[in-house]
Amino acid sequence: MERAIAVDWSLERRLQPAWSAPRVNEQVRAVQLARENMRLAEENDRLRHQNADLTASAEMWIRLYEAALARTKPAAGGLTVVYRPAMR
């Protein structure tokens, strides 16, 4: 995602009087902000992919758990659970 930012310096010179200094700080800041926006967009994309992977993984574990639970229910159907309080 390489993007080039073109700065038209001739337009900047025409807008300012000849005796004034060029406003480099604003243009430098614009370039910095554009780079930061690109970095944030890439990070956001990376986090979206990680979220999708984690969601798919969690759903898979839930299905595995439900399948294991379904297999144990018929086996536990004939068992009787006796509750015995702990001796003190």
Distance between the termini: 69 Å
* Radius of gyration over C-alpha positions, nearest whole angstrom: 32 Å
Helix content: 55-70%
Apparent shape: rod-shaped
Low-confidence stretches: none
* Percent of sequence in beta strands: under 5%
How does the major sheet shape up? Answer: none
Secondary structure layout:
Layout: H1 9-15, H2 24-76
Task: Characterise the protein shown here.
The chain has helices spanning 9-15, 24-76. With 88 residues, the chain is mainly alpha-helical. The chain has a domain at 24-72. The chain is rod-shaped, with a radius of gyration of 32 Å. It starts with 8 loop residues before the first helix and ends in a 12-residue tail after the last helix. The model has no long low-confidence stretch (mean pLDDT 79).
Key features of this structure:
88 residues, mainly alpha, 2 helices
Summarize it.
With 88 residues, this protein is an all-alpha fold. The protein contains 2 helices and no strands.
